[in-house]
Specification:
Two copies of one chain form a homodimer. With 274 residues, chain A is an alpha+beta fold. Chain A has helices at residues 2-10, 14-20, 54-65, 191-194, 238-248, and strands at 26-28, 34-39, 42-48, 73-78, 82-86, 104-105, 111-113, 122-126, 129-134, 139-142, 148-151, 164-168, 182-188, 213-220, 229-233, 270-273. In chain A, the strands form three sheets. The first copy, chain A, has an eight-stranded antiparallel beta barrel with strand order 2-3-13-11-12-5-4-14. A five-stranded antiparallel sheet of chain A has the order 6-10-9-8-7, with no helix packed on it. At the A-B interface, helix 4 of A face helix 4 of B.
Amino acid sequence: MILLLAALLAAPTAAEIVADAPPAAWRAVAPDNLLIMETGAGTMAIELAPDFAPAHVAAIRDLVRAGRFDGGAIVRVQDNYVVQWAARPAPATKAKPLPAEYERPATGLAITPLGAPDAYGEAGFANGWPVAQDRATGTAWLAHCYGMVGVGRDNPPDTGDGSELYAVIGHAPRHLDRNIALVGRVVAGIEPHAALPRGSETMGFYKGPAQQTAITRVRLASAVADAPRFEVMDTGSASFAEYKTARANRTGFFVRPAGASDLCNVVVPIRTVK
Amino acid sequence: MILLLAALLAAPTAAEIVADAPPAAWRAVAPDNLLIMETGAGTMAIELAPDFAPAHVAAIRDLVRAGRFDGGAIVRVQDNYVVQWAARPAPATKAKPLPAEYERPATGLAITPLGAPDAYGEAGFANGWPVAQDRATGTAWLAHCYGMVGVGRDNPPDTGDGSELYAVIGHAPRHLDRNIALVGRVVAGIEPHAALPRGSETMGFYKGPAQQTAITRVRLASAVADAPRFEVMDTGSASFAEYKTARANRTGFFVRPAGASDLCNVVVPIRTVK
């Protein structure tokens, strides 16, 4: 016990592991997978996940290139749940519903196991994303951790068209996993959006435009000069394995390291690149 | 599969179960365990948990009765983590440090199992509280779910005196379980406090009083005329068992009920009493 404690005290902290991770332990966020969204509350950068929801990501890119989010609004903030925003209404016909990209074959993904029990599946990480998998069905899916971005839909499962998006701003609503399309995650700027006033109506919707926060514009980073650049830690790297262990065995303030961590408390490190 | 689906569609929703729960399925929040905190952002009601942290709760009651929180301030809001507030500084000597009430014997608690895997222990509910237990040590402890209230401390584990409190406003930081004293939970009014601007300094502290939100006053409900009254669902009741099952097998919007739920997504029902 004394020796274990000594080992823990000598072990680098999660922050030190991140700071010391070599260049090979990081992957760049591709500019075509990076949305830059400017709102009345600030700028939010979102990494898209075409490996998990290719049709949704393609539709969102199309909406962005068409300027459909410019002049849109944040229409809903529900406490301990989501902030949700909408493009301007479609000019004519309703967009074709997208396929229900709620899970995908696990084959083709290099999944690093979390190594701790999970109520919703077998938790892990794939290419920098928090995921869960079910070996019985051979499928894997993105997990609804804090900051993950999904596509709003109505009750019929195929009605989402990518024009209404949400980001998780509370305890991970993992019951939504495999029930809605996750398409990415916020990589910067969630704070002022998570701090927006909660909407007064059912499910946190705002009463009307006066309460909503305007979206000035949304662009793909590939279309913006001097766009910010981000790197995500490679969740297959030795640095991430060390980081994961450090998150489960915190030191300093902690008198009793948990020895494990749930999926969403192993926040995948993301850094800005100068 | 068809039959299972039919059974799920016929099953009452979690909201219906809560609405239909008989009076015996509820327990009142004792007025001596209920703090009414008025701040510049609104009113927050907090239920204290003397069964888990008796010395801390007694110290907090003493501070409240002495008016020490009146004129205090919300000093820290860290995104996806906590809102934290502090009493006015003690007039003279530093208060005696409190014992480390981080866990207690499981004996004497009627624990209803969650019935799903948990990364941090064996999860369940006791007398209306989310808890975890370790059968090896025979101990149980309150879990850091959304809205739970704890006592800030410095690095030495015995420095908390109850004059600095925090509420969880993000994904459950369960790694704090057994590392800090949880003393209760917010039962009403967390929304405007969770929506406060995040602090600009390290760990979300505000830069100074100009950024902070003032605490007007804090009283025990037992000392307030016409104080609000709350009831918590008895987590040993048949209604709660039904509710827990419904939370794991959501219907309506959900195309694939998870079949399980993590501890903090089975939010214990609380209602106001007219």
